[in-house]
Design goal:
alpha+beta; Rossmann fold; 2 domains; six-stranded mixed sheet; 9 helices; 25% helix; 36% strand; elongated; binds adenosine-5'-triphosphate; ABC_transporter-like_CS; NA-bd_OB-fold; ATP binding
Length: 361
């Protein structure tokens, strides 16, 4: 292999067993991950799981208590924030209201010692990249929220950081705008080829934008994978429950071998399904994705249920059902595809391929 290939596959960021304590609070408990060059990598998890703390450690706003962070192989612990080739886009974009858009973007470059003409030329270039070239002479107050966030993005991209950190950058925008800015952000990331480390607690945002996602909870990494891996092959209860919607059923696994579990379902039917790494025989939790359960005639299918309620969701209807053994189970049916069973109807349920997975705890 040539040295060029080795550089191209180098990790932009390596987080190596990082622990972060604030007094008695441990925000990160030995977190490790590698973020590739040019990768859109998302830290996803509920409030307080440590996402922002990890981002602040990469940026240099916080020191790590233990472990190391490397940028393209170099330990960045000794470097103050402004010497690290990373830049951050915050939720609050904090533009200078009295400056034009162009001045806002070139300001940081001038502080880094760029000449006025180089700073302006680069600012114009990044404003074109975020499609705000024609707004260069406006002031932030004359722009929409989405446009202001794009100015903040241009400002962060201007000095050509090796890694861009984004801390919930879309959360101040309303839903429609957030969806539009999502695809723009993804396109800009592809075009620049810079590694983006994106923090969000919004699973839909993470699934739609990321090359890979690290799901975090309580200062631990629960799983790292592509959006499809995280959704279709969650490794444990936390991930299955946090990503998308799922039913968690208490079941008995008679046998687990080579990643396949033999399950005894409530009601007595048997099911063979994939098992997460670490899932064992005995009492366990089965994840059943509601959109992969099909309706069958009573007595047919692997589970028997009674419909208790419907929730109309536009494209889908959620059926709240109860199994004969007492557990609640949600089924999601596409509207228009078939008749939606009435409340009180008795049904059989088919567990389609990919619906079921035995989880580890
Ligand atoms: P959110 O989505 O709400 O921003 P988060 O996942 O980014 O949450 P962090 O802000 O990283 O979570 O916080 C992780 C934990 O560390 C929390 O328990 C938080 O209370 C604690 N913490 C964060 N900053 C400090 C601090 N400066 N001093 C003490 N504890 C802190």
């Amino acid at each position: 292999m040539t040295s060029t290939a080795a550089v191209a596959t180098a990790n932009a960021v390596e987080i190596d067993n990082v622990v972060k304590r604030y007094g008695f609070v441990t925000a990160l408990h030995g977190v490790s991950m590698q973020i590739g060059d040019g990768e859109f990598f998302t830290l996803l998890g509920p409030s307080g799981c440590g996402k922002t703390t990890l981002l602040r450690c990469i940026a240099g706003f916080e020191d790590v208590s233990e472990g190391a962070i490397r940028l393209h192989g170099q330990d960045i612990a000794p470097l103050p924030p402004h010497k690290r080739e990373v830049n951050t886009v915050f939720q609050q974009y904090a533009l200078f209201p009295h400056m034009t858009v162009l001045q806002n973007v070139s300001f940081g470059l001038l502080r880094l010692g760029w000449s006025v003409s180089d700073a302006e030329a680069r600012a114009k270039q990044v404003l074109e990249l975020v499609q705000l070239g024609q707004f260069a002479e406006r002031r932030p107050g004359q722009l929409s929220g989405g446009q202001q966030q794009r100015v903040a993005l241009a400002r962060a991209l201007a000095p050509r950081p090796k890694v861009l950190l984004l801390d919930e950058p879309l959360s101040a925008l309303d839903l429609k705008l957030r969806q539009a800015v999502r695809s723009e952000l993804k396109a800009i990331q592809r075009e620049t080829g810079i590694a983006f480390v994106f923090v969000t607690h919004d699973q839909e945002e993470a699934l739609t934008m990321s090359d890979r996602i690290a799901v975090m909870s309580a200062g631990h990494v629960q799983q790292i994978g592509t959006p499809r891996e995280i959704y279709e092959a969650p490794s444990n209860r936390f991930v299955a429950d946090f990503i998308g919607e799922t039913n968690l059923l208490d079941v008995t696994a008679n046998r687990v071998s080579d990643g396949i579990a033999e399950i005894l379902l409530p009601g007595g039917a048997r099911l063979s399904c994939p098992a997460a790494l670490g899932a064992r025989a005995g009492q366990g939790h089965l994840s059943l994705r509601p959109e992969r359960l099909g309706i069958a005639a009573p007595g047919q299918g692997q589970l028997q249920a009674t419909v208790e309620d419907h929730v109309y969701l536009g494209t889908d209807t959620q059926l709240h059902t109860r199994l004969g053994s007492g557990e609640a189970l949600v089924v999601r049916l596409q509207n228009g595809a078939a008749a939606i069973p009435e409340r009180g109807a008795r049904l059989g349920l088919e567990i389609e391929a990919g619906a079921a997975r035995l989880l580890s705890d």
